[in-house]
Amino acid sequence: MTRVGVLALQGDTREHLAALTAAGAEAVTVRRTAELDSVDGLVIPGGESTAISHLLRVFDLLEPLRAALAGGLPVYGSCAGMILLASEILDAGNQGREAVPLGVIDMTVRRNAFGRQVDSFEEDIEFAGLGEPMHAVFIRAPWVERVGPSVEVLATAAGHPVAVRQGAAIATAFHPEVTGDRRVHQMFVDGISVRSAASSGD
Known about the structure:
By secondary structure, the chain is of the alpha/beta class. It has helices at 13-22, 33-37, 49-58, 62-70, 80-85, 183-200; strands at residues 3-7, 26-30, 41-44, 75-78, 86-90, 93-94, 97-98, 105-110, 121-125, 134-138, 143-147, 152-157, 160-166, 169-172.
């Protein structure tokens, strides 16, 4: 069974664990390097990108995470997770309490681009490869202002990319884990399985 970790430093960990389990994965929390080393893929959940960045340093996970992602560990980031996966973050936060770009996806992301908590909204969006539209929940969501040539845009809202994929990395500005729609998590888990089978020569 595919073992997928959820970075459990801050944010909506429980919802992602449930969604991954429903998608057929063994879902576990990740707070330590040894736990990171034990998973086939990782989810970076929504929450506060600045807080998650700070806690990655506190738990001595920032460099091990960077190394794992640079080595090709499949990763899915939602909302704050999307921000952290970017190569460049606009409005990254106050000095000393900034969101740290992990540089996994060649994109520029703007934090809180859709506005404050009161500006949160829901919208049905077309998502490439998923057939029926997806009901997307945006909560203080980012959007993507630039994508590199190797980045695939999977969905847009308000004229901006809100779901992207590059290699083994997927990111969404919205929160599929809160709606009961498991298709993004299923896509992520299935992708890990395919990559694992290909690497083992099956």
